[in-house]
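Weekly modeling sync, notes
Attendees: S.R. (lead), two postdocs, one rotation student

Agenda item 3: backlog of single-chain predictions. S.R. asked that every request posted to the team notebook include the full sequence so nobody has to chase files. The rotation student volunteered to paste the first one in as an example of the format we agreed on. Action items at the bottom.

Example entry:
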Amino acid sequence: MDTLIFPYTPIRNLHQSNITNLKTSIDSDTLFKNGDVIFILHKGEQYSLRRTRNGKLILNK
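Predicted structure, as returned to the notebook:
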C-alpha cells in the first residue's frame, strides 16, 4: 500500500479541473491519486483517511 507521508498536498494545490465545486464534493480518486492514505490536519490534530481494498473509507485519529 502506498503512503503519502510528507510533503503533503494542501487542498489549494490540487489541480482546479479536478474539483468541480469544493463546497459540494471532491472525487475520492483525486484525493487518493498518490496512494491509499491521506493525512488531514483538523484543529491541530492529525487524522488519516485510508481507502481499503474493498473501496471503503476509514478515518482514524
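Discussion: group reviewed the output briefly. DSSP finds one helix and three strands in the chain.
Action items: rotation student to repeat for the remaining queue; S.R. to check formatting next week.
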